[in-house]
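Budget justification note: compute hours in this period were largely spent on complex prediction jobs such as the one shown. Inputs:
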Amino acid sequence: MLNRLIATIILAMLLASPVAAKKYKPINEIPGQVPETDEEKGIWQVGLAHQEKVRGTDELVNNAALEEYLEGIVNRLLGDMKEQIGVEADVLVFKEPTVNAWVYPNGTVGIQTGMLAAMENEAQLASILGHEVSHFLNRHAFIQIKSKQKQSVIGKGLGVLATAAVAAKTGTVNTGLLNSGQVWTELVTSGYSRKLETAADKQGLELVIAAGYPADQAIPAFETMRMDEDDEINVAKMWSSHPDIDARKKNLAKQIKRSKAPASDQGMDKTSYLKAVRLAVLSNSQLLVQAHQYEDAIASLSDFTSTLNQDAEAEFLLGEVYRKQTPQGNFETRIGAYQKSVTIKPELAEPYRELGMAYRQQGKREEAAQAYRRYLELKPDAPDAPIMQWYLDNLATAEPATGN
Amino acid sequence: MIKHLIKLVVLCSVLLTSIASAQNLNDAYVGMKKKEFKKQFTHLAVAPLVAAPALGLPDEMRKMITDEVLKKLGKAKKKLILPDEVWKFRTQLVSLYPDGVTDENRSAIDDHAYRELLFRHPIDGLVTIQVLAVAAPFNKDKAEWGGTSQNIKHSGDGFIGALTGKGYAGHIAATSIRVLVSDRQGAIVYRWEGGIEVMMQRKGKKLEALPKEQLWQNERRVSKAIRYALKPI
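Corresponding output:
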């Protein structure tokens, strides 16, 4: 009797699974029909409203070349599916130093500068984007929100559904509810079940292999995120709901072995990757400085400048991080960075100003005067030109800093 | 036996209250503990008090607040660079521009004024005193914020309303003193506010601004706000 009951339950489960799978077909299997229902349409609209709200604002890096590069990777991962789905790849780069990426229900990828700076090469980034593209292809945002609605687990998910319901009915979205860039990480991505995350890992890797990237770069990509787990500031909530890194790596390693993917060196060149995401890395370093995370900014910029040996702006930025970290010290390191900057690009004015300031602090009047003069030659109309002229005029009486 | 029990309950509630208030005061320190702050921030520069002109803070009150803050910091054994000295170099920099401070040069002036302050003085941090308007929560015509409370003047409830009392709750504009300490890199390490007084009165269901001449009349409330803003130090 008991055996028959167990058998019935197992049979029911087996029968139920295809029904559930059929209920939410992947997007590439139902081209042109997604979103299928008003409810799903409403969820898309919430996501679109958020994109609309941030697009073109200072929250984003807003660089066409950078977006084009990232969209190129997404297109490569989608392969033939791109035509089937009829969706244009779209990537928004958010100025946030945390390591995070997500996908909106309509397929637009949101990625933070912290994530771009954390990756070592394009192949690693492709692993992350593959994972996100997989969430999109399988409509995970919608499935997850539906599941939360069923379970009535959290108000946050229900909040999205309520907003979505209003959006579907009225065609307008209350953007007041979408007041921060964290909206999707809070409401959707942080809430993916481990089952969905594991599925996205699996399909993401398949997309990476199909696109010709080396599969094994997924492992260091996820390992980079583990480094942030101990760092409260850098842990994005999204990853806290992901399966733990060790389990994930183990699964990925097994899948890589089974896939017998041919060896590839595509997307492995660190220099070309850093050139492509240069603006994001520099912007991220500035954000780290604003957050007083000087060590992280120095590590990121040092790695960047040692790889791209001839970047004057990055060298200057590195000097500025040293200065801000220790306003009355770090003279050798910061002067070194400023000097390297003007050696690469002698017409860059700002490093001369900072050289002048640093030499003045040290009581090196001749060197300071020379640097101030050069700054004023290059930027006579700078807002701080009268101040620099005053420093220059009064160098004779300037003593080395007492505040050092 | 009952007496002992009552004593115990009273003792426990006193202890709990003091623990709770101690925890709250510790929230004033950002990213560090009080002990670290005391050890690391001994030499402080004090910037001139900042208050929005719309608040109508009288000059004598401005001076009184500054003097009391300096006195209290002195008592806390802090070595101080006075506001006049802090402001001196900025004034000098402003004089370099024929049009004075403009949107274009403001950040250059402020940045170099602060850099020069660090250049000239071995300070550990900068103290900023702000007088500002805040939204204070109120319930049954009593506002409570920043370690203080104040009954809201009210009228227009009618005879029955005045007799039975109205149960209005919400937020009301009030003034506070905020004291900030930032480190040499500009990161805020201390932030605490003391409530001064409400700026509005209730007329029936509406809140209206109090006449300006009724504000800044109570020195005791201002002193209390300063004490509270610096209490964690």
